[in-house]
Structure formats: C-alpha cells, structure tokens
Write a structure and sequence with these properties.
With about 190 residues, the protein is α+β, with helices and mostly antiparallel strands. About 55% of the residues lie in helices and about 15% in strands. It has a 3-stranded antiparallel β-sheet.
C-alpha cells in the first residue's frame, strides 16, 4: 500500500511538473508597450494616408465571404455607403450655412432643392471613386476578407454641386457660386480627421 501511494505521488509530481512547464512555454511574451494579457492587432489600411484630409474624402471598409469576388463587392458597397453618408452630412451642413449667410432669403425657399441637387451629384460621383489601396486575406475558416480604401476629391464635389445648381434655371437666379464654394471649402478644411 505504501509503495502504491508513493508511486502515485511520484506520478502526480511528474505530471504537475510537466504540465507547469508546458504552460510556461505556451504563454506569449508581453511587450513593454502592451498591457499584460493583451495582444495588439494590426488593422489593415489604418494609417493616416487612409483617412480623409483637406483634399479627399476617404473611407475604409471590409467584406467577408466564401467567394472572393463577393467579399470584394461587399467591401466596395460598404465603403461607398460610408463615403456617401459622410459627404451628405457635410453637404447638408454646407447648404444650411450657405442658406443662412445668403442675403436673398434662400434659407427657407431653396434649401431642400439645393440638397436634392447636391445629393444627386454625390451619388453620381460615387460611381467614379478612386481606389487608394486594397488587401485580401483568407481566414482559417476558408472565407475571404477583402479590405478597400476609396477616395473622392473634395474639389470635384464642390465644383460639380455648384455647376448643378447653376444649371437649374429656378435656383440659378439666387445662387452665388463663389460664396457656396467658399463655405464648402471652409467646411472641408475644418472637417479633417
């Protein structure tokens, strides 16, 4: 009986000893920059060159699918939607500021029409987005994750919105293109991420 207990103790001690050495080697090294227990993840297309600036609206999105081309389509669609949302919010603010600064009483009369024309221009311009960068990864599950960064030049938007409003006979009479562009450019400069 004593031999059996002694043998079990030796086996238990060996098991604990081996188990603890495995745990020590499996623990990842923690760098000085990362808090204990945390691992920094690198996010694709996340540097400053992928953010909106004074010249461009930019957006980064990703798509996930078992089909590579579907992952790309999802990412592109998500990115276009993000660009459209950001641009439309800014254009709305610009038009409201323009209407308030206008001395012709434009604020109540034409604001909605300006916005509709501007949104139409934005939707047209979204078809001509520029691809800044793209990356594709295959996950361990076999699915593809596609990352894309798209951009639209801000100056083109300002010019095209102003032209669209000037081409509308009803709105043209009260529209000051230079004042609109000035307010647009001020908003774009202030809206850098």
């Amino acid at each position: 009986m004593k031999k059996l207990i002694f043998s079990l103790l030796i086996v238990a001690a060996a098991t604990v000893s081996c188990g603890s050495s495995k745990k020590a080697t499996a623990t990842p090294a923690v760098t000085a920059a990362a808090p204990s227990g945390m691992v920094e993840e690198v996010v694709p297309l996340s540097g400053p060159q992928y953010r909106s600036d004074k010249q461009y609206y930019r957006a980064v999105q990703n798509g996930l699918s078992a089909d590579r081309s579907m992952a790309q389509k999802i990412a592109m669609q998500n990115c276009r939607q993000e660009l459209a949302s950001a641009i439309q919010a800014d254009v709305k603010a610009v038009i409201e500021n323009y209407a308030k600064s206008s001395s012709t009483g434009v604020e109540s009369t034409y604001t909605n029409q300006y916005q509709e024309l501007a949104y139409s221009v934005v939707n047209q311009r979204l078809a001509d987005v520029q691809v800044v960068d793209e990356k594709i990864y295959r996950e361990t599950s076999g699915q593809y994750r596609f990352y894309v960064c798209l951009q639209i030049p801000k100056a083109d938007l300002s010019e095209n919105i102003a032209k669209s409003i000037e081409n509308d006979a009803k709105l043209k009479a009260d529209f000051d293109a230079e004042q609109f562009k000035k307010i647009f450019n001020e908003k774009m400069a202030a809206n850098v991420q």
